[in-house]
Structures are given as C-alpha cells and as structure tokens.
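Fold this sequence, please.
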Amino acid sequence: MPRLYAMVQKVISLKPFKIRMSFLNSKTNIELGPINWVASGFSKTCGDFRVGRYEITETINMFSHRVRWEKGRRGVVRIVPKKGDTWALYRNWSSDWNELTPDDVIYKYEMVEVLEDFDEENGVTVTPLVKVAGFKTVFHRHMDPKEIRRIPKEELFRFSHQVPSHLLTGDEGRNAPKGCHELDPAATPVDLLKVITEVEEEVVMANAET
C-alpha cells in the first residue's frame, strides 16, 4: 500500500526515465498527539514530514499518485486529508495499539471519503464508502447521514493511506454509475476488492442502519 512519500525535485529525462527525488521522513508524531506511534513501528501518513537526502532513480513503477501538501515552518511538508480525498482507514484502530498488536487486527480496512479539509481544532470529517454491487473497485457514499463522523487530530493514525480515485460521470461506459468513486485497485486493500451481489449490498446497508 502507498504509505511512503517522496518529493520529485527534478525530471532529468523521460526516455529513459530518470528523476532526482527525496523521500519524506519523520521520526516523531508529536504534532498529532502524545502517543509516539512512529516509535512503535507504525507508518505515518498524516502530519509533518522532513525532506530527506536526494537520490537519483530510474524506477517509474514505484510511484502511485500525486498528493496535495502544504508548506509548513522551517521547511516542513504537511500532508493531511483534504476534501474529496478517498482514504483507507484502519477499521479496528485503537489508541491501545502497540508493537505487539497482531497483524490480523491491524490490517483490516474501511474506505471513506473526506467531506471537509482537516483543521487543527475540529480534525477531519469523513463518510463511509460502500461497495457498488457488481463492481470490483466502485464505491458510493453511505446513504445514512448518521454515518458521517469526525476524526480528531489525535486519531489521524486511523488513516492508513490515500487511495487514488476517479469520480464517475456515467459516460465512461455501459452501466457506469454516475457520482460513484472508482478506486485504484493497486492501492485498494485486497479484502475490499471482492465483487458483491445486490443482495449482499442490501445486507451491508441494513446492518449499518440498525
């Protein structure tokens, strides 16, 4: 899953592909909260990052997508959820997680759409995305407004990684559902790629409403 960030500093050539880039890194998450998740071995995908040493690469398939970022003080690069983004959340996330938490607990996911930009006081507002029956990577917003929730700044480690998506217009092809998100399968967790039937979708919606 795409959990590493890099800053492209210069495109040296396209054929052959060669760029100068630097990975973004962070040794702490103090800007998000008191629990040092980074020291426990968890990947940091939100917050403040520093630009590392530059290197030359000729590997094009290591890149997933561009992300929106903000320039902070003293050269800090800030990456936080933005309105319209689609992200995978850790479904079972808990503030009690540590380096002993089993992988089969950690790596369970749910997809969300970000409804409002992150801000320091209110955190970020998201709504669940539900799989569209008959499609592998197409999701729609949950119909129940009660499912909309706010994630405070201290819980941004719920966000596993951003998933590139395309908002369908209905003109892409036969039966293309207008207004739904088509996700990048390379960044979508495998357990969310299963094609479901209409009956299964109805059960999911019914369970969410009870």
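The chain is about 10% helix and 30% strand. The chain has a mean pLDDT of 89.
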